[in-house]
Amino acid sequence: MTIRNLPQVDIGARPAVRSDVSQSALMRWSPDVRASQVDDATITILDVIGHDFWDEGVTAKRISAALRRIGEQPVSVVINSPGGDMFEGLAIYNILREHKARITVKVVGIAASAASVIAMAGDDIQISRAGFLMIHNAWVIAGGNRHDMRDVAAWLEPFDEAMAGVYAARSGLSQTDIAAMMDAETYLNGQQALDKGLADTLLSRDEVTVSPDDTQASGLRAERRMDILARRAGVSRDDARALMADLKSGGKRGAAPTGAPEAAEFAAELQGIRGLFQPK
Q1: I need a surface site. Which of 16, 54, 76, 244 has the fewest CB within 10 A?
Q2: Lowest mean pLDDT among 11-20, 44-53, 187-196, 227-236
Q3: Which of these ranges, 17-31, 104-118, 188-202, 211-225, has the smallest mean pLDDT?
Q4: At what angle do helices 86-97 and 60-70 cross, to 10 degrees?
Q5: Does residue 251 have a pLDDT over 60?
Q6: Which residue ranges make up each domain of the chain?
Q7: Do strands 208-210 and 33-35 pair parallel, antiparallel, or not at all (unpaired)?
Q8: Is the Cβ–Cβ distance between 111 and 103 less than 8 Å?
Q9: CA 21 to CA 50: how far, in whole Å?
């Protein structure tokens, strides 16, 4: 970083706890939104944060590799992401925060959850007037008994406080006000983000473009929904990939393995996702 004195966020995972994508953010995400122009010093974050079942998504490893390739020169980071793995997002934020040259963040679509934390690493945060920032408390899936759940809730508090500290440092708002916004899962459009100090300028219209392939965009969003459902239902990676291939080909096997937890709910959700892949 060059002009921002932002806090580092300590990261620590916990057994039986997984971070996940907010369904509301996923449904607001339009994967077809892009920056109209990019160059060799541009890093794009246009997917969920963290690995999915298809070995896709945006990871700290990928961002580190991109920064090594670019070197110590100014970088643009283009974001259109519904968020995802909180721990991976915090790691990416820390990596960008330590970059020695200027970072310009461009939110062309949505920067939700973990992606909004990543956006705060910019020296200059630019957002589309039609774009959104979404901030909320850490969203995880955990397993265990009531004592485990209490422990997980207590364990999450420092992460929420750390994220609130990042937003507060970037915006100038009090950490108490930020915490209230996080509690309410707050969406801010471009102008609102600017007014709150969470962005610096609005992008001009010619800096954002939308792909004409709505079918491809819907399919990508459906893949991410299925990824979430598969993880929650305990479906293996191989089974999830087979189900997705079957859905894309119009097959009839779109149901979870009978032994998987929540299999009935998973199968019902798949029926809705299937329609996104069928010809109109």
Answers
A1: 16
A2: 227-236
A3: 211-225
A4: 20
A5: no
A6: 17-210, 214-277
A7: antiparallel
A8: no
A9: 10
